[in-house]
Amino acid sequence: MILTLVVFAVAVVLWTCTPLDDTFVALAAVVALLLFGVLPASALAVLGGSTTWLLIAAFVLAGGVSASGLPARLATSLVGRARSVRGLMHLTAFALLLTAFFVPSTSGRAALTLPVHRALRVNARVSRALGVLFPSVILLTAVATLVGAGAHLITSALLEQATGQGIGFGQWMLLGLPLAVVSAHVTAEVVLWLFTTRADRAEPLAGQVEPLAERVQPVAGQVEPVAERVQPVAGQVEPLDEPTVVPLAQPTVVPLGEPTVVPLDRPRVVPLDGSTAVPLAERTVVLAARSEGPLPGAPCSNSPRQHRQFSALTRTEITSLVIVGIVSAGWLTETWHHVPPEVTALAGAVAITAPRLGTTTLKAAFADIPWSLLLFMAATTMLGSALVSSGAAHTIATLVSPSHLLPTVIAVSLLAHLVIQSRSARSSVLVPIVIPLAAAAGMNPAALAFASTAAAGFCHTSTASAKPVALFAGAYRPRDLLKLSAVLAPITGALVLACAVLLWPHLGLPLK
After folding, report:
1. How many CB atoms lie within 10 A of CB 15?
2. Which residues form the Citrate transporter-like domain (predicted)?
3. Where are the beta strands (DSSP E) in 110-167?
């Protein structure tokens, strides 16, 4: 027991105070416990256990869905319906919530939605507010699903080992989805209040987002009328019934980073002194590259034709939507058909990578799996298991008073990101201690473990607190995070406490 505490304490110090890779530290700690006989060699089976396979299959599914473009289309389509800054904030929050069911990684969701933020056509102050909103909502809405973060799987695995029963996919969604919805929209209002003015909130929006999925498509439709009306025959131009010539001094070149369309309101023809037609490619130049932001001064892309084109789902998007829907339904109905969730996930992974049917290949999906994260999660799960099985967690728990246990657990979980940056590491540290504490206080270990994991999802104080926050670092100022954290941290704690006391007992997770 003493050896376990020493190894565990050294791991926490190395995670907190050194630049060593988190996965390396976790694996080194596991090796130490194996060498000294605290853990049996059979404990390595967790590397091929059901939790690991569930997450691998979920990442393959996410790779197929992301390859289809469905999450980005979903987010862009919803955000594009906003007509005010407040509406834009709330639709953004809702769209980000929905992405939690398609991508089982907060950093993956942040990378997926970063282009959506860059495509928004808003003023600098509102853009900065959205830069804070995106990672905040991504982190707080991960609690909506069991596969939303590796920490959730660690919590369920530790509960199953300690009590014989974990938290399944359906029960987790039933408990976490209401908290995720409320947290997303409360965060939107907090960001509005802290980072925008009354004039910003009253400013109407129209066509404030550039479509990401089919930006290049409208070019063909817009150029066709020119091709039909201007017929170069042996260097001659057929006369037009109506003059529709827009003189241009030079070709219009718009350097962009993402596939971007320069809308043509009218046919653009450069008249020459002679009768020679100017090739279309020389009249209007459109560069298809990656955009670093919205097209400056570009008109709104809200025409009925463009809206219809953008709203039409492609075959790959329909395929990914159907497969994810079937897998989610299988997870939710596990108690009826008794098919383990990892088996359902693997079936979905095979379907979405199948030749002809799938949206990606297995090789491409495997290349995108964060193997380091999986190893880290497996290693931290083993560390947590060692704390429970050796009795070290119970010894630590006896040092904490059981009175006011729930508020204390929530407060410590909220602040844990200041010293332990990894979400999975926080759960592997906190949950093994929370479980015996709950048992000693006569409370339900699952209720306190779930509350701790939900509260630990708050990690907004600094750029280094979480990967999604770091990915959006260029969209806000560091002091913006401190400003948000000072207001949002107590609100998040109050929401988790209210759910634990007032809501979750009615949904099958009583406190006692």
Report:
1. 23
2. 13-455
3. none
Distance set, CA 162 to CA 158, 174, 200, 433, 504 (Å): 6, 23, 52, 11, 21
d(CA 335, CA 343): 14
Q: What is the CA radius of gyration of the chain?
A: 27
What's the CA gap between 138 and 130, in Å, rounded? 12
Backbone CA torsion sign across 151, 473, 134, 314: negative
**Rounded-to-integer distance, Cα 148 and Cα 38, Å:** 31
The per-residue pLDDT for range 119-148, each reduced to its tens digit, is: 787 888 888 999 999 999 999 999 999 988
Which of these ranges, 34-38, 302-306, 381-385, has the smallest mean pLDDT? 302-306
- Strand 252-254 versus strand 284-286 pairing type: parallel
Of how many residues is the chain composed? Answer: 512
The pLDDT of residue 250 is above 80: no
Tell me the three state secondary structure of residue 396.
helix
Q: Are 416 and 429 in contact (CB under 8 A)?
A: yes
Euclidean distance between CA atoms 183 and 172, whole angstroms: 16
Distance CA 128, CA 257 (A): 20
- Helix, coil or strand: residue 288: strand
User: Which is nearest to 488 in space by CA: 469, 503, 507, 510?
Assistant: 469
Q: Mean pLDDT, to the nearest integer, of 399-427?
A: 85
Residue 148 in tokens? 């939303």
| Bridge partners of residue 233, in order along the sequence | 236
Tell me the backbone φ, ψ of residue 259, rounded to 5 degrees. -55, 115
Residues 146/451, Cβ–Cβ less than 8 Å: no
Provide the residue ranges of all domains of the chain, joining segments of one domain with +: 53-203+316-506, 217-287
The H or E element spanning position 254 is: strand 252-254
**Residues with Cβ within 8 Å of residue 219, at least 6 apart in sequence:** 261, 286
The pTM for the full model equals 0.70
Backbone angles phi, psi at 493, to 5 degrees: -60, -40
Specify the 3-state DSSP secondary structure of 391: coil
Q: Taking Cα atoms as reference points, which of 86, 65, 322 lies closest to residue 202?
A: 86
Angle at 253 between CA 251 and CA 254, to 5 degrees: 155
Higher pLDDT, 487 or 163: 487
Read off the pLDDT of residues 79-106 as tens digits, 9 standing for 90 and up: 767 788 888 899 999 989 988 888 877 8
Rounded Cα–Cα distance for residues 330 and 188 (Å): 32
- The enclosing H or E element of 380 equals helix 371-390
**What is the structure's pLDDT at 133?**
94
Rounded distance between C-alpha atoms, residue 33 and residue 37, angstroms:
6
What's 430-466 look like in SS3? HHHHHHHHHHHCCCCHHHHHHHHHHHHCCCCCCHHHC
Separation of alpha carbons 248 and 431, rounded Å:
67
